[in-house]
Amino acid sequence: MPERHASPPPGSGPAERAAAAPPLPGPAAGPWIDTHCHLDEFEAHAGRAYQDRVRAGAARAGVAHCVVPAVELGNMDTVRALAHRHGDSYALGIHPLFTGRAGDGDLDALARALEQHAQDPRLVAVGEIGLDFFVEDLDPERQAHFFREQLKLARRWKLPVILHTRRSVDKVLKGLRDVGAEGGIAHAFNGSLQQARAFIDLGFKLGFGGAVTFDRALQLRRLAAELPLESIVLETDAPDIPPHWLYVTAAEREAGAAPARNTPGELPRIAQVVAQLRGIPAEALGRAVRHNSLAALPRLAGLVPGVPAQG
Questions:
Q1: Which residues lie below 8 Å from residue 137, measured CB to CB, with a gap of 6+?
Q2: What is the pLDDT of residues 53-93, one digit of tens each?
Q3: 239: cis peptide before it, omega within 30°?
Q4: How many alpha carbons fall within 13 Å on the CB side of residue 280?
Q5: Could you tell me what percent of the chain has a pLDDT over 70?
Q6: Second label for 210, Cα 20 to 30 Å away, from 37, 99, 267, 286?
Q7: Which tens digit of pLDDT belongs to each residue from 81-133?
Q8: 220 contacts 5 by C-beta, under 8 angstroms
Q9: How far apart are CA 202 and CA 169, in angstroms?
Q10: Sheet holding 204-208, edge to edge
């Protein structure tokens, strides 16, 4: 959150892209787990009833569970309540994009929140945390301080982490090596094969979402096709990172088209694209990513309808 990775093919418009959306996989491929979804943003955009419709639509599409990460102190109670209301799960953390406005006491408040909710089975990770070197006016030293301190909190409570790594993969990896971590997910992974292997060697899974659906995302699609299947989890980052069939270009927005809003209900179609890239049935991909999601976020065990706890 929030990021964009690719452009639609030239000469296409919203109607053509929508028509090119892959069909939903059959029910046997699910249930699906969206390992990264900012579901709280839908209420902020258009109210709770709209948010509930979005979540219900995702459930009808086969998405049985969403992991909802916090981004700052101000939405931690929101994501926790939301996860409990929908039977989903949540993570608590301070996103690098919000470190500029985070107060000096926010890390202490996060520590208290993690302690207060340590026994809540729906608290599955510390996140979304990490580094962002795409936004130029963010202080890299302040980001690094928040990142490292949150890694320490995650280790204290033996929780995995959900990582933001936009244009910062090597620095994030260095932080993990220096401080340590209980594993987790490199969200919206868009690095190199060497960087992917480095995360895997540290016990992390790599999150793939809407960006992989763009034909021009050649390196990302190659990674999705060739990385070990046990290293991949799926996500939407909704309402951000829309797949190509939802993408609205800047020119289209200037002409009056509404901006794209991704939803967790798109996850099964994104999965269909990944399965096609790998040349495997959606059912095989579904089994693998469910297993991988529980391995990355062990507290998901027992929370996801239709998914037994791993033995």
A1: 100
A2: 999 999 999 999 999 999 999 999 999 999 999 999 999 99
A3: yes
A4: 17
A5: 95
A6: 99
A7: 999 999 999 999 999 999 999 998 999 999 999 999 999 999 999 999 999 99
A8: yes
A9: 13
A10: 32-34, 63-69, 89-92, 123-130, 161-164, 184-186, 204-208, 232-234
How many whole angstroms separate alpha carbon 227 and alpha carbon 211?
A: 16
| Tokens at 257, concatenated | 């088209």
State the amino acid at position 153 in one-letter form. L
Residue 166 to residue 130: CA distance in whole angstroms: 9
Q: Which two tokens stand for residue 277?
A: 């890239």
134 phi/psi in degrees, rounded to 5: -85, -40
Torsion angle, CA of 195/69/134/254, rounded to 10 degrees? 130
DSSP assignment of the chain: -------PPTT--HHHHHHTPPPPPPGGG--EEES---THHHHHHH-HHHHHHHHHHHHHTTEEEEEEE--SGGGHHHHHHHHHHHT-EEEE---GGGTTT--TTHHHHHHHHHHHTTT-TTEEEEEEEE---SSTTS-HHHHHHHHHHHHHHHHHTT--EEEE-TT-HHHHHHHHHHH----EEETT----HHHHHHHHHTTEEEEE-GGGG-TT-HHHHHHHHHS-GGGEEE---TTSS--TTT---HHHHHTTPPPP---GGGHHHHHHHHHHHHTS-HHHHHHHHHHHHHHHSGGGTTTSTT-PPP-
CA distances from 221 to 108, 190, 235, 277 (A): 40, 10, 15, 7
Q: Is residue 299 within 8 Å of 279, Cβ to Cβ?
A: no
Cα dist from 89 to 36, 65, 294, whole Å: 10, 8, 12
